[in-house]
From TrEMBL:
Pfam families tied to this protein: GLTP
SUPFAM superfamilies per record: Glycolipid transfer protein, GLTP
UniProt entry tagged with the keyword Transport: yes
GO CC field: cytosol; membrane
GO molecular function: ceramide 1-phosphate binding; ceramide 1-phosphate transfer activity
Source organism: Mycena pura
Every Glycolipid transfer protein domain range: 43-179
Protein's recorded name: Glycolipid transfer protein domain-containing protein
UniProt entry keywords in alphabetical sequence: Transport
Length: 216
């Protein structure tokens, strides 16, 4: 799979590629805007999990091993959500349904994993948005700015792992060249659609906080 398709998964366009086959991004709602996540009535849990798998692959492009600790945490959180989803599919059509029913069952693990995963998606989205709003900003600076906005308030001070990982990210031109695997990196960088991903992040952030389920 081309890595630009992985990013398109994360932005929830009208459809994305999974294992070489066209699959509809089944986010519920009525908004047909191609830049929208179509999540008016909820975020489709299965589509979200499939798309989130691409986030791990994207961090591979940032350098061999430097974001290993992030990838391990993302994988763990995806696994926790997927375990809850697989065990209760009928009650977990949307992420919101999954959280409500888990809460009613007196369980918390899937919800806690979702809170952390949304936080990681917010961090990624913010960094990529910064590359678009500041086209001359170095990639490691974009990630530092995203860290300050999304993650810093969760930590007393940045850990050595975080500091080393962000300092070790590649140049932005290298990153987007790797991401497109031979395509037009500059064109891709300018046309990367992040509105859908941001919509999902903001919707779930509000839902989790308003329901008392957790704070992103």
């Amino acid at each position: 799979m081309y890595f630009y398709e992985i990013i398109l998964q994360l932005t929830f366009g009208n459809e994305f590629q999974i294992e070489g086959k066209n699959r509809e991004a089944r986010c519920t709602g009525t908004n047909q805007d191609e830049d929208s996540a179509n999540v008016e009535t909820g975020v489709d849990a299965e589509a979200f999990l499939l798309a989130s798998d691409g986030l791990v692959a994207m961090f591979d492009l940032l350098g061999a091993g430097v974001f290993a600790f992030v990838q391990a945490d993302i994988k763990s959180n995806i696994t926790g959500i997927r375990e809850r989803y697989d065990a209760n599919r009928a009650e977990s059509i949307t992420l919101e349904d999954l959280v409500r029913h888990e809460h009613a069952d007196g369980a918390r693990h899937g919800t806690q994993c979702l809170v952390r995963l949304i936080r990681e998606l917010a961090f990624t989205c913010c960094a990529l948005q910064t590359t678009q709003t500041d086209p001359v900003c170095a990639l490691h600076v974009c990630f530092w700015r995203a860290y300050d906005v999304v993650l810093r308030h969760h930590h007393t001070t940045p850990s050595l792992c975080v500091t080393l990982a962000i300092r070790a990210v590649p140049r932005r031109d290298q990153f987007f060249a790797w991401l497109t695997q031979g395509g037009d990196a500059e064109k891709f960088e300018h046309e990367l659609k992040l509105a859908g991903l941001d919509e999902i992040v903001q919707r779930m952030k509000s839902f989790l906080a308003d329901g008392g389920y957790g704070h992103v």
